[in-house]
Amino acid sequence: MNDKKENPFLEDIRDTFAATMSRQKLKKRELAHRLGITPETLRYKLDSPGRFTVGEYRIACLVLNLNPKTLSNNE
Prior knowledge:
The protein is mainly alpha-helical and 75 residues long. It is 59% helix and 0% strand. Helix 2 (28-35) packs across helix 3 (39-47). The model has no long low-confidence stretch (mean pLDDT 87).
């Protein structure tokens, strides 16, 4: 039985990135391009945000106009 629990901060990242991309009408393809990864890799990382490198995370926050230090406080 797999009782692996998600890290609440990582859940916040996933939810905030998805909501912000939707609000900004930013396609995954565009964010992936700006991160220098494939859209498939981006989907994988959005499903499991702990797999973002620090650099990718910072770039994604920059592109999405999010403060990485207060990401879990964004609504």
